[in-house]
Amino acid sequence: MTDTYRIVEGRTAEGSLGGEPTVAVSAPDGSARVILALRGATLLSWQVRRGAAGEARLTELTELTELTDGYRDEAELLSQDGVRAGLLAPFPNRVADGRYRFREREHDLLPGRHGDRTVYHGFAREAPFELVDATATADSARLLLRSTHIRPGRYPGYPFAVDLAVEYTVSARELGIEMRATNVGDTTAPYAAGWHPYFTLSRPIDDLVLRIPAHTLIRTDASLIPLHGDSALLPLEHCPDLDYRAPRPLGGTVIDACFADLSPGPGGRAETVLSDPATGDELRVWQYGGYMHVFTGDTLARDRRASIALEPVEALTNAFNRPDHAAALSLEPRQQRKFRFGVRYASPGS
After folding, report:
1. Widest CA span in the chain
2. What is the pLDDT of residues 80-135, one digit of tens each?
3. CA dist., res. 237 & res. 72, Å (int)
4. What is the dihedral of CA 107, 110, 116, 122, to 10 degrees?
């Protein structure tokens, strides 16, 4: 990915990916850098220096290692192929047949379309955002982006007004994200959020080890839509092929599945761990609540199985059509909801 930057505040810089505006920020000690596209507030790059943190200038990229597999150019960003690091709102993953029922009213997200009615991952990933604040402390930098694009009449089948704010916090070893949604309309809106990042440790994922702190697998039909009611819930002891409660090699396993009942660790956050046994490097994808969706990238148009999607999501696929999720999805007028997640890099001795 090629880009040029103009420094606008401290270690924050504006740039572009083709014709798409971007913003970059580095950790105060220069040991990490993040690049975001304003389209969708999309993470394009997260680079971290291996080993001990130290002083570095923003332009000293040779010392930094890329840990995500994001969009590489403007064409990829506009195509949204693979939904690389997309922020998922107002729903994650799929809505069956592009239709849902909420508060006794039927909604069609794809009116007039016949044949393939696949709709997935919401609208936020393509919405325009603006950078509204950039601040720094002694050990972290923070970017706040906002969008007011989700409004009645703009997206068929979603006649609700929701403001989105996304806060990225960058430190030497960690990237934290908080998504905040505020219902600014007069009616209750269905809403859930998530993130669709692809991670790499500079090796094919077949060589890596995965641990997921989940106790339940979400069972789906052939279209990857969860089964009805409790029939969707399968204890992982009954599904040994996808039981990653203990670390195990990925090998050639194909995964496109959602995991539930995540066990929280210290501080209340659940951590899904991707590790390289050859180097001891780890990526710890953390989240407060929700589900973990895992996709091994077998159908990507570019670099299949070169990276793995570890997706923190608030709700499971097709939650808009599950009566048992209606209360959790309901965002009342003037109500705000937050979803916090992120990733931490660890290496031996760091």
Report:
1. 58
2. 999 999 999 999 999 999 999 999 999 999 999 888 888 899 999 999 999 999 99
3. 40
4. -80
Indicate the SS3 state at residue 68: strand
Rounded to 5 degrees, what angle do the CA atoms 68, 6, 131 make? 65
d(CA 102, CA 97): 15
Question: How many angstroms from the chain centroid is the CA of residue 349?
Answer: 28
Instruction: Say how far apart CA 304 and CA 61 lie, in whole Å.
Output: 26
pTM summary value: 0.93
Please tell me whether residue 347 adopts helix, strand or coil conformation. coil
Please report, for the domain that includes residue 50, its CATH number: 2.70.98.10
Neighbours of 29 (CB within 10 A): 16
Nearest in space to 285 (alpha carbons), one of 259, 310, 308: 310
Q: For 6-65, how does the pLDDT look when each residue is reduced to its tens digit (9 = 90+)?
A: 444 447 899 999 999 999 999 988 899 999 999 999 999 999 997 644 434 444 444 899
Give the range of the structural domain holding residue 130, as residue numbers without chain letter: 5-346
How many domains, the chain? 1
| Cα–Cα nearest to 50, from 66, 65, 61, 35 | 65
In what helix (H) or strand (E) does residue 327 lie, and over which residues does it extend? Answer: helix 326-329
Q: What Cα–Cα distance (Å) separates residue 143 from each residue in 130, 133, 146, 288?
A: 10, 6, 10, 20
